[in-house]
């Protein structure tokens, strides 16, 4: 007996699925080393979604590729990356190949480049399954069809034989997600999964990722520059700037109680449905610094409107973001640290206490993003942009004749418009010609002159096919049985676009 209590093992649910500690990534460059990632640390647990946001060049994708060991040779990577307690940095390519797609998988930004163009979608799914599982080809094929159905691809058995170029952008992204969850990984890294997709397809892809998380229980690291995507999908957010994390916390803490001017600027530059009308978005002037020659001090200091001399001298480390409040007696309540909320800013305490109002940080550069309590700033009538209702009517200029030009005939007076004509600015629709001409009564004259006088022309095939809309599967089906324009070649209901 040593007299020491044995430490109970950490529960599997509380243990992080992925733990990244002090990650640094440096690329060789012509003008010196490029410090792409500097001191990134985060932990994500099973079933949790961590959103990593930042503008282009902030190091988001480089950090994701370092986690999976996909960086090119010659890249210097140091720090720690643990998957279920196993260190990944330093493993060889053979060991990482057994982990990629099995313990941790990735959804790439461009699905067309992630898929092999000369193999069908189904064959690529079958290969991904058989590499990590002992399955027959038939069993792997059936599982591939199930995965395609799980991510919402219609008619999965037939579409499994299609090639990547035969899929739309959203369908290719669904296929890549199906490949990522094929072996039920512990962690899914999604690198800009909604880029270059319209808003409707973006929502569908996020729903597919939610389904993947529910089915596999995997942790998701979502990398994006769209704050709107993170707001409705992630549990926690980490903001990066110039390769360094500058603020981290829960979604509510970051979106309603930001402590870093860069985060406040990003939120002010994001359109909001609940924001005041007529108030311009907040611009963040300037450009990010060069990662080969970082300025001394905080990298955001040259663009920060509230930077002080200390900001240009020393770079702040991420520290717990305090939350203070002013009581009615003008006394300041004790500072308390928000759980998991960190910010790398010398003036974060002033922002938290209200001494430096968030609404005033970018107010002088084009907008007032938020009020002091994190809600949209109140809007006065003077702040409203001119609308059709309150716009001053344009009056004729003095000395300018409004009549007809000399030597021209004045236009004839037009009749007063009908009350019905003012209901819509569009002209009434042109009546469509009948699909079949009216029958002509037989006459003796037409019988005798039928050999010399041509009869009325019968409607052409194009006229018969006019009722068929743009959703009809093929031109050959138009005019046959008056099929619905929503029908497809096999008679099933056409899915929404």
Report on the structure:
Residues 366-497 are annotated as: Disordered. One of its GO terms (cellular component) is plasma membrane. It holds the Pfam family ABC_tran. Keywords: ATP-binding, Cell membrane, Membrane, Nucleotide-binding, Transport. The chain has 497 residues and is an alpha/beta fold. Among the domains are: 18-241, P-loop containing nucleotide triphosphate hydrolases (Rossmann fold), CATH 3.40.50; 468-497, no CATH class. It is 23% helix and 15% strand. The chain has helices at residues 60-68, 93-99, 111-114, 121-132, 137-150, 156-159, 169-180, 199-216, 227-231, 251-256, 261-268, 348-353, 444-448, 461-464; strands at residues 18-27, 34-44, 49-53, 76-83, 86-87, 104-107, 187-191, 219-224, 236-241, 244-250, 319-323, 336-343. Strands 6-7-8-3-9-10-12-11 form an 8-stranded mixed sheet. A 4-stranded antiparallel sheet has the order 2-1-4-5, covered by helices on one side. Strand 7, helix 8 (199-216) and strand 8 (219-224) form a beta-alpha-beta unit. 30% of the residues are buried.
- Largest sheet, order of strands side by side? 6-7-8-3-9-10-12-11
Helix fraction, binned, reads 10-25%
Task: Determine the CATH superfamily of the domain at 18-241.
Answer: P-loop containing nucleotide triphosphate hydrolases
Distance between the termini: 70 Å
What is the average per-residue confidence, as pLDDT, rounded to a whole number? 77
Order of helical and strand elements: EEEHEEHEHHHHHEHEHEEHHEEHHH
Shape: globular
